[in-house]
Amino acid sequence: MKKIAFIIFLTTSLSTAFSQANVLPAPPQQGIIALTHATIHVGNGQVINNGTIVFTNGKITSVGTAAPASDAKVIDCTGKQVYPGLILADSYLGLIEIGAVRAERDEDEIGNLNPDVRSVVAYNTDSKIINTVRSNGVLLANVVPDGGILSGTSSVMQLDGWNWEDAVYKMDNGIHFRMPGLAPQSTKSPATDLLKKAYDQIDGVRTFFREAKAYLNEPTHVQTNIKFESVKGLFDGSKIFFVHCNLVNEMMIAVELAKEFGFRTVIVGGTDSYKIADYLKQNNIAVVLNQMHTLPVMQDDDIDMYAKLPYQLQETGVLYCINDFDEMNRGRNLMFNAGVAVGFGLTKEQALQAITLNAAKILGIDKTTGSLEAGKDANIIVSEGDVLDIETNKITNAFIKGSEINLDNKQKQLYERYKTKYGITK
Amino acid sequence: MKKYRLLCWCLCLFMAASAQETFPVNGVHDYRTNYFAFTHATVVKDSKTTIPNATLIIKEGKIISIENGGAVPKDAAVIDCKGKYIYPSFIDLYSDYGVAPQEQPQRSGFSQQMVSNTKGAYGWNQAIRPETDASKLFKVNDDKAKDLRSMGFGTVVSHVQDGIARGTGTLVTLSDDKENMDMLKDKAAAFYSFNKGSSTQDYPTSLMGAIALLRQTYLDAQWYKNLTPVQKEKSTSEGTNLSLEAWNNNQSLPQIFDAADKWNVLRAQKIANEFGVPYILRGGGNEYQRMDEMKATKASFILPLNFPDAIDVEDPNAVRLVALSVMKHWEMAPLEPGMFDKAGLNFTLTASGTTSKEFLQNLRKAIDNGLSTTKALDALTKTPATLIGVYDKIGSLDAGKLANFIIATGPIFEDSTVFLQNWIQGKKFIIDDAGWNDYRGNYKLTVKQPNQTKEYTVEVGGKPGKISATLKASGDTAKTDIKINILNNSVNLSWSNKTDSSKVNHLTGIISGNTWVGTGYAANGEPLTWNMLYNSAYIAKADTAKKDTAKKQDINKTVYYPFNGYGFAEMPKQEDILIKNATVWTNESAGILPNTDVLIKGGKIAAIGKNISASGTKQIDATGKYLSPGIIDEHSHIAITGGVNECSQSVTSEVRVADVIDPEDIQIYRQLSDGVTSAHLLHGSCNTIGGQTQLIKMRWGKDAEDLKFADWDPFIKFALGENVKRTFVNNNNRFPDTRMGVEQVLVDAFTRAEDYQKMDANKRRDLELDALSEILHHKRFITCHSYVQSEINMLLHVADSFNFTVNTFTHILEGYKMADKMKAHGAYASTFSDWWAYKAEVQDAIPYNIALMTDVGLTVAVNSDDPEQARHLNQEAAKSIKYGGLSEEQAFKTCTLNPATMLHIADRVGSIKVGKDADVVLWNANPLSVYATVEKTWVDGIEYFDRGRDSIMRTRIAAERNRLIQKMLTAKKGGAKTTPAVLTPDVINECEEDRRVSSGIQ
């Protein structure tokens, strides 16, 4: 009875609020589009003043200062800033709608070793969260499963589409390993027991990969193991090994695993990566810095450690990107997270690169996106001002593969609704 | 009856002829008077009087006399104590000796338990158990008694260490006689704590709840005492309440409070002051970190000697997670008793919290670290005896007192001294008798075998009781170890042949004065006879030099305020400062002033203008920089200890955040570094009517009282919606479960408050209803956690019907839907910028909320509810420019002047205006920008944060950590016991839960 009442409550509340059913996915790009007189932030550090960017059939054909061909549809961007579409490197977008409602969570599967479960099939293109994120300039997101130890397979999604099949940008790009924490904690059972359990679980993952490797050496099997099959891409280099961990000993285990199996490895988290930045660089390990707005690990730590971290990795030459994993605002402050790092040493173009080209490289999609260069997908945003600062971030146009997307969302609609109620006209 | 029994027992001591007892004896009666004379001893009667060459005479468990060279009565057995020291046995006021743990009732399921499940006509709360009488539970436990005796204790006050009111403790000796003979006083003291212990009842779930419960019980007991029998019997009244009866009866006893922590000491003392009860406070060992506050209590203390072990710091990955404060406490804890001594505080020591091995070791460590031996002895004898009013019986060696004394090989506080015997009530208990006779010396050993006689010299060294010896054949130079075992005066000796160590000579014999004689077998199997004659005294090798250096290790005795890495060795002082040429965001009609000077004087803003000069005043060139008023967080849960939620009941207006401020929360410092100067600390949102809140200023380093914002209008936290309905709990059994029920909780509470006000002057003072009455009288103001429009509307109606105003709706993510009604009511709004979709009731949250409410005419603040969010409230404020187009000035006011207005403190803070408090922040860029960082933060004109000083502090932290890590490594190498390095967690509080985690690693 209660459940029924609850469902009734939910459905009524949904129908009274706008369901943003009128926010339609964009059709494919028609004709040639040119953005002119723009300040173009390429994403690789380069800035072109009074520039023009032209794209056709979803691909960028030219970036520079030359005038566009006469048949192009011209969008005058005088006084505006043009950037590559921003990229969330680690996100639950489309998997979780209302965090506290179990029915609305699809990110966490039962079991410890689930490399085969795939986020893409649970991705909900009609999530109301997605539209609030893309209207701030985020156009791509790596949608990541959680739970267990080998959590599953992520896919990079473009934040526009009728269904997940339309919206997938890079299918099954990586496998996610949530390393059991190795921080010794004071608990009722001795800390050493908990640590031992963690080490045993890590060893279980190593054993899994050793067996998978052996299994994959043989082309045919009497009994198929789909868990082993699912990690094939790690061994042939087509998938990325994302290891979620933060402390030095955890990261060193990740690097050592990468070496043993020859995996392309990315550390997600990396709170203490500044302590072993040289080592990470030597071993070509990239880092996804998951959340700028995070408290220091310890009371004695540098009070601004997380904000200083990007600059430290930048100086060492470690490939890193900045992410926004905040569960309260759901990734829409990615660009402001990057902006914070500017206050602690990065240049604005470096900060931009940390949420565009670097993220693309880390996710394995830099051949087609991440910067505004001829031949790449036309994933582009136009902002009235500096996209990294709150006051000036105002996205006027956004294109995914050349298609101009609708920047409306449920929150804007509610705003309009109540402006009407109160007769506010601004 | 009890008194009578005690009297009988006393008389028995003096009238042996009339000695009788009710207990049957199995066998032949063996009456003894235990008449002994201890001669030639050095008797330390008390810390002031030592009698050399004394004769101590005891009889029937009592001291008869102590005299220098005193004569020995003919019928007393003589014990020669030449070279020995005799001290009064110790007294421990905080013990659970012989008090069996209570049987713990089991809690069933996860549902809340609203009332006590104690059997009997006791009070409503299971943690209030003043009726517990340890004398009725006491059972001699010889193992534990032996343990305590070996530390030197003769008497303890034992109580059941369970609950908030724990009942009475009983004074017993540590003799092995039957309970009736050991018990000196059935009720010696009453005990209290903040810990509800085994109580399965939900209330209290928090420290502030425990404090409220204690306060309310004092009031209830007073009321109950004055009830007439007729009043009691009324069906609407209390009936018989044995707990309150016992509580009242216990008040005449010494009151001992187990605070167990420096801040809890102060919290307990506050209750003591409020109700005029002099608590004897048991500390936790960290009180040295706040000596000024400890002195100010003027209380007596019971201090544990629970010095922490060194941390095993060999793994840098693990040590990285140990806070400096933890390492520093390891170094400084042994200083505590000495610091109390120097400060002239009255204190006693307790064995609780230490093992028998640690106790003496730590006692001596405390003496090495500044505790005087006279104070140490007082703290273990006279002081505890005096505190519980039994110094006429125990606590010194004087005629007429109990014959409770330690016999030791030397002055008891010296490391080499061994406790030999502990006599209790005239009865001997051996601790380590092997040391009674000092056999050390140089001997001549003669061994006669059938065909030969061999001569050796034997050197017996080591410690009395733990001797070691070597043997050397005459004419030889090499020494061989010789094993000597002595039991009473029988002795065994054995040593190996020099040429073949498997061949062993073994001898047995007896010691008679200076001569040892006996028989045995040589290594070759031949029988032998032997004798060994004392030749000369043993000369100890000097190894004291080594020990002295160990003792004199460097200790950094600097106490940092607060006691953590970012604490101040010396508190920053209020200064007069002239800030030159800044862009000043005034929040006043003047708006944003370029190239402007601001003068700070006496903690206030003294002048604002161009080209101000103030000679002799410190100047800061702020060219290119921005000066703004400090950020005020309307909704914070930092700096609260022991839980932010008293979750057990739907109405808990009696609990007060003010009671549980944690001034050492690192979040205070971090938030200063982001421009926060005041925070409104709220109870959580677990119940409809939560606790009383506390506004603080971020005065990093000060204590809880000094953090409080002076003369503010008191507030209280309310909450509506999912949290108070316990939506996330399965099988909730706490009313309410729906928003309909929430309304009725409110109506019921305020109706009761109205009725309460009409009652006569003799009414029971009810802390819960007192707070609600203040709301009705517009003397206390509400900040109400709320989200959806229906519940906002409901509360407006309830408030209107009881004729009060809801001051602030906090969180209020659907405030934009009700803005017109809130405005009409006169409420303020405090909200998040862009949080949403984390639970069902926030699915209509929009980031345009602030702008919409502002445009309708409400005064709106942006709040944190999260220690991380609070670090960028300026950025959160900026979002109302992006979402809804507020001006920069409007936006910045949402984190400064507007929260000040809704907290009724806008006359003092929130803008830069002459006469207001100098709570200001210097930024390197537009304070609304993500690129802006804080350079300096002042509160009351005191520079609590400075980026340059922060960097110096980090260098200091690194150096201190390294010094202590090295010191611990050395300690471990030197054989010190270590404890594993584990994460020192930060406490992170949010509305819904209290978490102990370190972020960034989970």
From TrEMBL, chain A:
Name of protein: Amidohydrolase
Signal peptide residues on this chain, from the entry's feature table: 1-21
Domain called Amidohydrolase-related: residue spans: 329-402
Give the molecular function GO annotations. Answer: hydrolase activity, acting on carbon-nitrogen (but not peptide) bonds
Q: Which UniProt keywords apply?
A: Hydrolase, Signal
* Record organism: Ilyomonas limi
Q: Which Gene3D superfamilies match?
A: Metal-dependent hydrolases, Urease, subunit C, domain 1
UniProtKB/TrEMBL annotation, chain B:
Name of the featured protein: Amidohydrolase
Task: Report the InterPro entries cross-referenced here.
Answer: Amidohydro-rel (IPR006680), Amidohydro_3 (IPR013108), Metal-dep_hydrolase_composite (IPR011059), Metal_Hydrolase (IPR032466)
According to the record, the segments passing through the membrane are none
Q: Domain Amidohydrolase, which positions?
A: 844-941
Q: Which domain of life is it from?
A: Bacteria
Q: Where is the Amidohydrolase-related domain?
A: 352-414
Tell me which Pfam families the record gives.
Amidohydro_1, Amidohydro_3
GO molecular function per UniProt? hydrolase activity, acting on carbon-nitrogen (but not peptide) bonds
The alphabetized UniProt keywords are: Hydrolase, Signal
| Stretch forming the signal peptide | 1-19
